[in-house]
Write a structure and sequence with these properties.
By secondary structure, this protein is α/β, with parallel strands linked by helices. The chain has 15 helices and eight strands. The strands form two sheets. It has a four-stranded parallel sheet with strand order 2-1-3-4. It has a four-stranded parallel sheet with strand order 6-5-7-8, with helices on both faces. Helix 10 (209-218) links the parallel strand 5 and strand 6. Helix 7 packs antiparallel against helix 8 (155-163) and helix 7 packs parallel to helix 9 (172-187). The longest helix has 28 residues, at 123-150.
């Protein structure tokens, strides 16, 4: 049976319970006409100034007849609690999951035990699933390494494979086979131009992913670090599930995220940062902190309900890349 998720959750518990996790964000954005799903939500009363992702998730639930949804109420989106109430109104079974307020292994274990019990399984069974998923996650992270170290994976490819680890495209066995085949294909490629500008992408995944990464590369820059997408793959697995999801930075403070981001900026020799914020999302306020704490130029791009780059965003992106190129030339003199 399929069960929707509103963001990355401990999928090991779901799989141990015999359920197939479905990331509703991926279901929404991969729809042939994602705008229609947003319009469904607006027709049902969602305000125009509600985050596109929330409206898209709602529309996806109805479009694909998802009858059970795990809603992350702490550690993700402030609108999810009200989304949960509307889903209940529509007869959809909702299960709340709350990340601890701060990374605490004991508190996380309690949350995992509660979720496992609610789903009719045990944390011990989920730990066995964790062992099976370890290889799959390592393959995804190998792809990430090839992005920045071997320069054979594009920014969009990095994004799409890593973002898919939230639910492993609803079939972790097939995902494992597919990513293995992709790694073999990418490993046989010629390397990209090492002189390209190297960019980091931080923030939630964008609504216009393919146009963003493609346009960036047209202008001689390449994203070699996707912050949140990489976190979905659990780069710090720890010794058990509670530790793994305590090391997962996205649900916790910006300070934790900055520690992870800063280390990767240095490791990957990043020239500049794109910070994506979603219109009407409370996380956009964090842009103030990122710009104050990260010691590299930051371009903030805001996405609304457009699924392609408008001319204004293209112009800003071009100007940012041009500025980075000029700075690189000056430093080289």
């Amino acid at each position: 049976m399929k069960i929707g998720i509103t963001t990355t959750v401990p999928v090991e518990c779901l799989i141990a319970a015999g359920l197939t996790p479905v990331d509703l964000n991926n279901l929404f954005i991969s729809h042939p006409e994602p705008r229609q799903l947003v319009e469904t939500a607006e027709k049902d009363g969602f305000p125009l100034n509600t985050c596109t992702w929330i409206k898209g998730i709602y529309g996806a639930c109805l479009e694909y007849d998802i009858r059970d949804v795990i809603c992350v109420t702490t550690g993700d989106c402030s609108n999810t609690e009200m989304l949960m109430e509307v889903l209940k109104l529509k007869g959809i079974n909702t299960i709340p999951f709350a990340y601890p307020g701060e990374p605490d292994i004991a508190a996380m274990r309690q949350a995992l035990e509660k979720l496992s019990s609610r789903l009719g399984t045990t944390i011990e069974a989920a730990e066995k699933v964790r062992s099976r998923l370890h290889k799959t996650r390592r393959l995804a992270l190998e792809l990430d390494r090839m992005s920045w170290q071997e320069n054979t994976v594009t920014g969009f490819e990095n994004h799409i494979w890593l973002v898919s680890t939230s639910d492993f495209n609803q079939d972790y066995v097939k995902y494992t086979q597919d990513v293995t085949a992709f790694l073999a294909e990418a490993g046989a490629r010629r390397t990209f131009n090492p002189a390209q500008l190297r960019l980091a992408y931080i923030g939630v995944p964008p609504v216009f992913a393919h146009p963003l990464y493609e346009y960036t590369e047209e202008f001689g820059a390449r994203v070699v670090f996707n912050e949140t997408q990489r976190q979905f793959a659990m780069p710090e697995p720890g010794a058990n599930l509670a530790e793994q999801y305590s090391n997962y930075t996205y649900p916790y403070s910006i300070e934790r995220r900055i520690g992870d981001i800063s280390a990767q900026l240095s490791l990957r020799s990043i020239d500049g940062i794109i910070h994506y914020v979603q219109s009407f999302c409370h996380r956009a306020i964090g842009d103030i902190v990122f710009k104050a704490r990260l010691n590299l130029p930051v371009l903030t791009l805001e996405g609304g309900s457009d699924y392609s780059l408008n001319q204004h965003l293209k112009t800003r992106l071009e100007a940012f890349i041009d500025m980075l190129e000029r700075c690189k030339i000056i430093r080289a003199k």
